[in-house]
Amino acid sequence: MANQTRQIVQDSLKALLEDDVFLPGLQGDAREQAFTSLGAILSTPNHVHKSFLRIALENGNVVRIPAFRVQHNNALGPYKGGIRFHESVNEEEVMNLAALMTLKNALHDVPYGGGKGGIIIDPRSYSVKDLHLICKKYVQYFSDIIGPDKDIPAPDVGSGEREMDWMMAEYKSIRPGQPYKGSFTGKSVVNGGSLGRRDATGKGVYFTFRYMIHDFIKQQKSFLQSTENAFAKTALQFDGRPLTLAIQGFGNVGSVTALEAYQCQHLQKKVVAVSDRNVTLYNSDGLDIPGLVRFTALNNGNLPETEEQLKQASIKAVIQDRNNVLYLDVDVLILAALEDQIHQNNMDKIKAKIIVEGANAPITSEGDRYLSDKGVIIIPDILANAGGVIVSYFEWMQGRETQFYTEDQVYQLLLNKMKSTMDTILPTYFGDPLPLRQNCYIHSVMKLSTVLYRQGKLY
Ligand code: NAD
Predict the structure, then answer these.
(1) Domains in the chain, ordered, with CATH?
(2) pTM
(3) 269 in active site
(4) Ligand 1 mutation pick, 194, 277, 281, max ligand atoms within 8 A of CB
(5) Which DSSP state fits 302?
(6) Helix (H, G, I), strand (E, B) or coil at 72
(7) pLDDT tens column, 210-259
(8) 336 lines ligand 1 (CB under 6 A)
(9) Is 276 touching ligand 1 by the criterion CB < 6 Å?
């Protein structure tokens, strides 16, 4: 678990220890002891599985590829989390991502624990045949510890529905006659995947922002005006006035979030900048997002990066350095690319007053503290980017019931679930001085602690 995650979990436990209304059955020394046990349980994974996959590559070489499955906690249900295919994957990172999954599922009342997998490869350097073999071997090596009621992997950076289809097929052949549809989520629709899964995270990311700044302010304006809370003051600045948005990353999450923002009728707003691994594109009058989505679909996911390409796509924009997106004078910044984008060395250049974490852990603890102290609203990853795992849960349920929902039904269920979480968290957030991340963690830790206590795991 990364220091930042561990620290916020410990801070949450400290706040709950001092709150006598929480777990009133635990008092005195027994209470102290139980909270110490909780700290130990939540800050370490239950299991770290590691293997070196032996792969005979198409070119004749035999290689050993390091692969992980971390099972952080299953108090709330089977372990759940993606498998990342990336050359920078490491055990520490996978452990942290698995812990974030435990907290995310607890926050949104999804009946799963937290897990994460990783394979240390750059998938772009392998043939399709090699990747197929790597996926099959991963399932063979970990087949005893995964399964629809044990641990359910999904796609993550570098993997997608193709890999999940391959993995599910391998699981099915290793366990003939047993239920297999729910062994992996994020599969193709024809293979038992859910409609709406691809867009779920991006839709959820935009929804959390829109719900806070539009619906919640509208419903709770007098409460927000009555408090001295710094975040409430920030939120009220945006009430009913035109907004500008910038989005870092234009992949699965960023492009869907951008399109949602472009199409949303509830707020007066413009997406003035988007970026990817190569460029930032800026237009103070607002970018043509559908045009950019069409361009990326035909160009390997990349945004236009030359004047000629902009002209070819009929897009009006100024081309800027790729990191410029972070420093623009906009109201809202949505981070949908990578970890650690805002840190000690650039945090003082950020001008946005609201930041939404579409990516996992895109702000370091120093950046988080610095911006929160300035009253910047940060909608954290475990709250904002849970759309993917929520629809994975719907996929798993549909696989069990062999009844499938329409795309509209999936989106409605998704937004209802996220709304319910926002309605639980926001009144506390705007009523106390803690940042939203801390409020979310307290909620998750409260749920996990109660369940662990009732399951008799603290003594
Ligand atoms: P993706 O690979 O589809 O897109 C990533 C985007 O980031 C691309 O546009 C890429 O060009 C851009 N990018 C890469 N390096 C960059 C850099 N240095 N600066 C600016 N842009 C850069 O990935 P994705 O699925 O959209 O995931 C993005 C983030 O969201 C990841 O952190 C992922 O863990 C997180 N996330 C994704 C999902 C999901 O369902 N896809 C769910 C939860 C969290």
Answers:
(1) 1-44+194-459 (3.40.50.720), 46-193 (3.40.50.10860)
(2) 0.94
(3) no
(4) 277
(5) P
(6) strand
(7) 999 999 999 999 999 999 899 999 999 988 889 999 999 999 999 999 99
(8) yes
(9) yes
